[in-house]
Amino acid sequence: MEQTNQNANNPYLNNANNATPQVNSPYPAQTRVYTAQKEDTVYTKRMKEHFSFFGIGSLLYAIFYTFCLYRNASGITYPFFVIGTLCYFFFFMQKLGVPYKKDSVFYIVSIVLLGISNCLTGSPQLLAMNKCGIFLLAFILMIHTVYLDKSWNFPKYFSALAQMTGIIFVCLFRPFGDMISYFDARKKNKDGKKSYFLPVLIGIVIAVPLLLFMTLLLASADAVFASIFSRLLESINFNTIFGTAFMTIMIFFASYAVIAAFGMKEVKEDITDHRTLEPIIAIIVTVTLSAIYLIFSVIQILYLFIGNMKLPDGYTYSSYAREGFFQLLTVCILNLLIVLVCLYLFRDNTALKAILTVISGCTFIMILSSALRMLMYINRYNLTFLRIFVLWSLAVIFLLMAGVTISIYMNKFPLFTYSMIVVTVFYIGLSFSHPDYWIAKYNLSPQHIEYLDEYDTRDSQKYIARLSSDAAPIILDEKLNPYLADYFAVLEDEDDMNDELLWLSRYHNKIQLLSEEMHLRNFNFSLHAAEKYLVQ
User: Fold this and answer.
1) Cβ contacts of residue 88 below 8 Å, gap of 6+?
2) How far apart are CA 376 and CA 517, in angstroms?
3) Is the dihedral of CA 371, 377, 382, 387 positive or negative?
4) For residues 453 and 162, what is the distance between their CA atoms, to the nearest angstrom?
5) Would you tell me which of 11, 147, 225, 360 could form a disulfide with 25, CB atoms 3.0–4.6 Å apart?
C-alpha cells in the first residue's frame, strides 16, 4: 500500500490505472505495461516501438565513436567525439520525451572543455584523468537529465551511480529483445508497408560466411586467382579491420544499453533519511580524535609555522618539514569522510556539531602543514607531476572541507553541487595548465640546477626525459635549457655523447617519432608545437 501511494504521488511513475500525465509536470506519465517478464516504462516501450530509429542511431554513433577514438587517445577528433556524444544523448532523450534541463549547461561546458584539453596536451597522466572526468561528468549529466535530483546528497548519488552501472550491464543485450518485439509488433499491426530490415540482416548473416567459404574453394581451384587473392589479402590490415569492427560492435551494444537503462527509470528519486543512529557513538569517537588533532595542530603551529621550538635530536628544520605530507594528505581525506558519515548517519546534536567543527578546523591546519612540507620538499629536490597533483588535491580538499563545515550548520546546503563545481573547475584549470611545461621550467632553471647535488641532478634529468610534448618548449629551447648547447655540439656524432646528455637524446628522439606518426585524425596541438623545436 505504501509503495502504491508513492507511485501515485510521483510524476515519473504512474501505474496503469493512472496513466494521465500530471498537470505542470514536464515529464510524461510512466505507464507500466505489465508483461510476463518485466514491466515497461513509457520510455522502454517507445524504444521497442521505434527500434529501427534507436538501433540504427546507436550503430551510426558506434561507427562515429570508432572513427574518432580508435587508436587515437589525444587527437583533434576528441572534441568532435565529445560533442557528438552529447548530441546523441540529448537527441535520443528528446525522442523518448525527456525534457532538457537548463542547469545542465555547466556539465555540458565542462565535458566539452575536457574534450578540447585532450587534443591540447600530450601528458599521459592528464589524458587518463581527462577521460575519467569526461566519463564521470557524462554519467552525472545523464542522471541529472532523467531524474529529479535537486535534493540528492552524496550517498544518494553514489548509490544511483552504482545502481545505474549494474542496470547498464544487465541491458547490454537489450537490442536483441527490442528487435524481436519490434518485428512482432509490426507483424500484428500490418499497415501495408513492407520492411526490408530483417530480410537484409538475415541475408548479410548468410552471405558473409558463404562468401568466405566460396572464395577459399576458388582460391584452391585456380593458382592465378589464388595469387591475385593473396596479394589482395596482403594489402589489407586485418588487425585494423578486426579492431575497428570489434570496437564498433561493443560501442553499439554499450550505447544502446545506456539509453535503455536510463529509460527503465529503476532508481527511486525519493531520499531516505538515514540519520537515525545515536549521536553518543559519534561523540565518543570524534572526541578522542579531536583531542589528538588539537595536540598535533598546536605542534604544527609551534614547530612548523613559527619554528621557534627545539626539534628532537637528529632532526634539522628542513628534514622535519620535508616529511609526512602524504600521511597528512591521507588523514585530511579520512577526516572529510568521517565528518560526512557523522552528518548522514547520526541524529542532529549540538555537541556533535561542535566537535565536528573542531575536527574541521584541525583539518585546515593539517592541510596547510602538508602543503608547506610539500613546497619545502620541492624546493630541496625536484618538481614532479605527483607533487603538483598533491598540492592541487590539498587546495581542493581545503575548499571541500569548507563546504562540509558550512553543511554542519546548514542542512539544506547543496553540498554535492558545490563539491562538483569545485572539483570540476579546479580540474579543468589543472588540465589546461600543462603541468609538464612548468615541471621542466622549474627543474631546468639555473638557480635550481645549482642547488642540486650530482645524484639529484641525474634523477632530475631522467625524469625530465619522460615528460610529454607539453615540456618541449622548455626542454628543446636553447635559451631555457642550459644543457642544450652541449647537446647540439655533439649531435652529429652520438658516439661522443656522454651519459649526461643521453636523456636529451632520448627526449628528442621520442618527440621526433611521435611527430612522424601524427596525421590528420590524431593531430595534436601540443605535439605540433613541439615539432618546431626539433633539430633536423
Assistant:
1) 57, 61, 255
2) 41
3) negative
4) 50
5) 11
Helices 415-432 and 105-118 pack at an angle, to 10 degrees, of 20
The residue assigned the cell 590524431 is 522
With a cut of 70, which residues of the chain have pLDDT below it? 1-38, 189-198, 201, 229, 232-236, 238, 307-323, 488-500, 535-536
Question: What is the three-class DSSP state of 346?
Answer: strand
What's the rounded Cα separation, in Å, for the pair 133 and 429?
13
Among residues 34, 471, 80, 470, the alpha carbon closest in space to that of 461 is found at 471
For 33, list phi and psi in degrees, rounded to 5.
-105, 110
Q: What is the pLDDT of residue 209?
A: 80
What is the reported pTM? Answer: 0.82
- Supply 291's cell numbers: 583531542
Instruction: Quickly tell me which residue has 587527437 as its cell.
Output: 75
Say whether 40 sits in a helix, a strand or coil: strand
pLDDT, position 206:
85
Helix axis angle for 51-69 and 42-49, nearest 10°, is 90
**C-beta separation of 101 from 89 below 8 A:** no
Q: In the block, which residue shows the cell 610539500? A: 374
Question: Quick check: helix, strand or coil at residue 277?
Answer: strand
To which residue does cell 507500466 refer? 32
CA atoms of 117 and 120, how far apart (whole Å)? 5
Q: Nearest to residue 104, comparing CAs of 118, 93, 96?
A: 93
Residue that the C-alpha cell 490505472 belongs to = 17
- CA-nearest of 81, 92, 99, 12 to 51 is 92
- pLDDT of the residue at 27: 47
Helices vs strands, H then E, count in the chain: 24, 0
CA-to-CA dists, residue 489 to 205, 484, 492, 496, 508, angstroms = 64, 9, 8, 10, 15
- 442 and 380 in contact (C-beta within 8 Å)? no
Contact call for residues 365 and 328 (beta carbons, < 8 A): no
316: three-class secondary structure by DSSP: coil
Q: Counting Cβ atoms within 10 Å, is residue 149 exposed (0-12), middle (13-18) or buried (19+)? A: buried
The crossing angle, in degrees rounded to 10, of helices 51-69 and 238-264 is: 130
Q: How far lies 38's CA from each of 266, 352, 359, in Å?
A: 12, 46, 49
Residue type, 522: N
